[in-house]
């Protein structure tokens, strides 16, 4: 059972455009994390959000945790080719993580 | 620090063969995890461990066994491989679990093909 739904599954944009990836769940999580994975490598943590309504910024990336701690979004401003990768959200509950299926982002020059 | 390492990186098995995947971490982390990643499915938890000598089932444990005899090592075994176990396997570790949030550090993965 996939508790975390990510949308869209695939996103292809031109360099300089903005994009938003969504992560939705019917469950409440104690925290939610966003990872980026490049081909042939393991996921690497980008950010952890803990508090409902929390907004975190990491350079051109903005992460938001929903008020009810069931959903999150990742917004990239002025995307660059280096942002290409598989973006995964993961909800944490009692030390275990539930992952979404991921959003493949491709940024072309 | 090497972080999380996995061996082997690639393996091809025939149906019915057995093998063990080794995960090692040098960060003194308490929690370790084994995931499999399949196209369109994301990462699914197979087994995990909350400390040396302990193991627990995750979301998809059938066909796999694990052991955590030493804190730094977490082994994943396939006793009788099946084509459905063709996947990329990732090991991860984290400082602790429970209700406190913590970062998982992932290994580079093992690509397993079962013919």
Describe it.
The complex is a heterodimer of chains A (109) and B (115). Chain A is mainly beta. Chain A has strands at 4-7, 10-14, 19-25, 31-37, 44-49, 55-58, 61-65, 71-76, 85-93, 96-99, 103-108. In chain A, the strands form two sheets. In chain A, strands 2, 4, 5, 9, 10 and 11 form a six-stranded mixed beta sheet that branches. Chain A has a five-stranded antiparallel beta sheet with strand order 1-3-8-7-6, with no helix packed on it. In chain A, strand 7 and strand 8 (71-76) form a beta hairpin. The mean pLDDT of chain A is 91. In chain B, the strands form two sheets. In chain B, strands 2, 4, 5, 6, 9, 10 and 11 form a seven-stranded mixed beta sheet that branches. In chain B, a hairpin with a 5-residue loop joins strand 7 and strand 8 (73-78). Chain A binds chain B through residues 2, 4, 6, 9, 30-31, 33, 40-45, 48, 50, 88, 90, 92, 94-102, and chain B through 4, 31, 33, 35, 40-45, 48, 50, 58, 90, 92, 94, 96-99, 101-109.
Outline of this structure?
The complex is a heterodimer of chains A (109) and B (115). Chain A is mainly β and 109 residues long.
Keywords:
heterodimer, A: 109 residues, mainly beta, 6-stranded mixed β-sheet, 5-stranded antiparallel β-sheet, 0% helix, 58% strand, globular, B: 115 residues, 7-stranded mixed β-sheet, 4-stranded antiparallel β-sheet, 11 strands
Number of strands of chain B: 11
The assembly state of the depicted protein chains is heterodimer
**Element order of chain B: H for helix, E for strand:** EEEEEEEEEEE
Q: Give Rg of chain B in angstroms.
A: 13 Å
What is the typical, i.e. mean, pLDDT of chain B? 92
Between the first and last Cα atoms of chain B, what is the distance in angstroms? 36 Å
Shape of chain A: globular
Number of helices of chain A: 0
Strand content of chain A: over 45%
Which chain pair shows the most residues in contact?
A-B, 27 and 29 residues
Instruction: Report the strand count of chain A.
Output: 11
């Amino acid at each position: 059972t996939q508790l975390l739904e990510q949308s869209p599954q695939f996103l292809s944009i031109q360099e300089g455009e903005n994009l938003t990836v969504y992560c939705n769940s019917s469950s409440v999580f104690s925290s939610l994390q966003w990872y980026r994975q490049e081909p042939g490598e393991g996921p690497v943590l980008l950010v952890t959000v803990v508090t409902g309504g929390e907004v975190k910024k990491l350079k051109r990336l903005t992460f938001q945790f929903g008020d009810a701690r069931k959903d999150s979004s990742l917004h990239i401003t002025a995307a660059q080719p280096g942002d290409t990768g598989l973006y995964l959200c993961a909800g944490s509950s009692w030390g275990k993580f539930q992952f979404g299926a991921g959003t493949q982002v491709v940024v072309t020059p | 620090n090497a972080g999380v390492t996995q061996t082997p990186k690639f393996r091809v098995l025939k149906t019915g063969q057995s093998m063990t995947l080794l995960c090692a971490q040098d960060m003194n982390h308490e929690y370790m995890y084994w995931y499999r990643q399949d196209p369109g499915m994301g990462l699914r938890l197979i087994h995990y461990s909350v400390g040396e000598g302990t193991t627990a089932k995750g979301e998809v444990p059938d066909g796999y066994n694990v052991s955590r005899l030493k804190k730094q090592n977490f082994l994943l075994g396939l006793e009788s491989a099946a084509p459905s176990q063709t996947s990329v396997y990732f090991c991860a570790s984290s400082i602790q679990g429970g209700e406190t949030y913590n970062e998982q550090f992932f290994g580079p993965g093992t690509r397993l093909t079962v013919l």
